[in-house]
Design a protein that fits this description.
Elements (H helix, E strand, L loop, with lengths): L8 H4 L9 H34 L4 H13 L2 E6 L10 E4 L6 H6 L6 E2 L7 H5 L2 E2 L7 H13 L6 E3 L11 E2 L12 E10 L12 H10 L3 E7 L3 E2 L6 H16 L2 E2 L4 H16 L10 H4 L17 H13 L5 H11 L2 H9 L22 H4 L1 H4 L18 H35 L1
Parallel strand pairs: 1-8, 2-5, 2-7, 3-4, 6-10
Antiparallel strand pairs: 7-8, 7-9
Helix pairs in contact: 2-3, 2-7, 11-12, 11-13, 12-13
């Protein structure tokens, strides 16, 4: 079977909670009064669930009672697998979908998830994380977890190597190698989450917001599948071990194993926030997430098809406006944005670094990542029209940045028209002699 292409970040993370379909959105509006009543009722029941989980000792009885009470909150947990949990394994490896994955799996078996982010304290403890008191490097964390796992009386560790939640539908983030440096045998846990009406999780949402929406919807179903334990091969590096387990989990879930990381998710969300705050964003026939420029190392679409005349025409249009920008840089960015205006904006705002080209074909002495430096190659021959001096500092207001960008774009268009008129006017004059 032919392997499908790795999905981009816009498919791995949901940026919108509400559905786009008209019928589902209408059903959500009709359900809203019922959902609000459930939310209020479940908040009171949730307090009792928390108190019961704190009072009762860890064991089968507590897990059974809390699991039944969670069903009243709309959280249903199902488990399956060839042998269920392997009692000899001390490290579970699971994919990450919601903020409450560790709580759900702890309803099925005793396990601990170390707190990697956030300040330690009551909130960290109340959410079910284990505090190790390690604030240093990953090496110190691994050493602390090795010491924890060496005591057989401690519950197994539940780790999420993706280090960031996805929507669980398209692919897995690249697994970090440090969870596979603790012990030589791990047991993968495939986790799938489903709920009606709204998205399971939104990429930029906090855990408290997700908790409210979990109480609002009729139900959320967590399906946990225990896979056979996976031992480390002889002389296998932790990176290769992590990649092998990632591939096995991806096959079990029916998704793609990607090379995107949690840092790429943070960059993707930063671009989404930046673009959504720009007034009068450039229009395009593609969705917003598809127009965002991704680093070429993160997607396999950095190459440019020579036979595609449409992209060639778009590249020439950008080149006429920005003659000092290398054509290869323009083509690479166009392959990501598929929009002339967006590529021009990326080049003007310095989001795409490049070495400017002079008209004589020689490189300028220094690289440029901003418009002020990149325009120096053309200001000597033709002065750009401007009603006021160019802004030397980055404006704080999005409206001021947008107006400044539009002003510079108008100046560049005027300059390109004059260049075109001078070039073709000289050619016609030469032909008439």
């Amino acid at each position: 079977m032919e392997r499908s292409a790795a999905p981009g970040p816009e498919r791995l993370f949901d940026a919108h909670r509400f559905p786009a379909g008209g019928f589902v959105l209408l059903a959500l509006l009709l359900y809203a009064p019922v959902g609000l009543c459930l939310l209020v009722l479940r908040l009171f029941i949730g307090v009792h669930v928390f108190l019961v989980s704190c009072i009762l000792p860890d064991g089968t009885l507590r897990r059974l009672i809390v699991r039944v009470m969670c069903s009243v909150l709309g959280l249903f947990v199902q488990q399956s697998g060839p042998r269920l949990r392997d009692a000899a394994v001390q490290v579970y490896i699971a994919n990450h979908v919601t903020h409450f994955d560790h709580n759900v799996i702890s309803l099925l078996t005793s396990c601990n998830t170390p707190a990697l982010n956030g300040a330690p304290g009551f909130i960290c403890w109340s959410r079910g994380f284990m505090e190790l008191g390690v604030t240093g490097s990953r090496a110190e964390l691994v050493d602390s977890l090795k010491a924890y796992s060496s005591h057989r009386g401690n519950p197994p560790l539940l780790l999420f190597p993706e280090e960031a939640a996805t929507n669980g539908r398209a692919g897995l983030l690249r697994f970090s190698s440090w969870p596979f440096s603790i012990l030589d045998v791990v047991q993968p846990v495939a986790l799938q989450v489903q709920r009606p009406l709204i998205a399971v999780s939104v990429a930029d949402s906090s855990w408290i917001t997700e908790l409210f929406w979990t109480f609002f919807v009729p139900f959320t179903v967590y399906q946990v599948r225990w896979m056979p334990s996976v031992p480390r091969r002889a002389e296998e590096l932790s990176e290769d071990f992590a990649l092998r387990v990632q591939e096995l989990l991806a096959m079990e879930l029916g998704v793609v194993s990607t090379r995107l990381t949690a840092a790429d998710k943070a960059e993707h969300m930063k671009r989404l926030r930046h673009t959504s705050h720009l007034p009068f964003a450039p229009a395009s026939s593609q969705p917003l997430a598809a127009r965002l420029r991704m680093p070429s190392s993160l997607s396999g679409i950095g190459s440019f098809a020579p036979e595609d005349t449409r992209f060639t025409t778009m590249a020439q249009q950008v080149k006429e406006v920005l003659p000092h920008v290398p054509l290869e840089v323009i083509r690479t960015d166009l392959a990501q944005t598929n929009c002339v205006d967006t590529t021009i904006a990326n080049l003007l705002e310095g989001r795409v670094p490049f070495f400017p080209e002079s008209e004589a074909g020689t490189d300028l002495p220094a690289p440029s990542t901003s418009w002020a430096a990149s325009a120096s190659g053309i200001q000597g021959s033709v002065a750009l029209p401007s009603s006021k001096p160019a802004t030397k500092q980055f404006a704080k207001s999005p409206m001021e940045r947008h107006l400044s960008l539009q002003e510079r774009k108008r100046a560049l268009y005027d300059y390109a028209r004059r260049r075109f008129a001078e070039k073709h006017g000289a050619a016609r004059a030469g032909g008439s002699l």
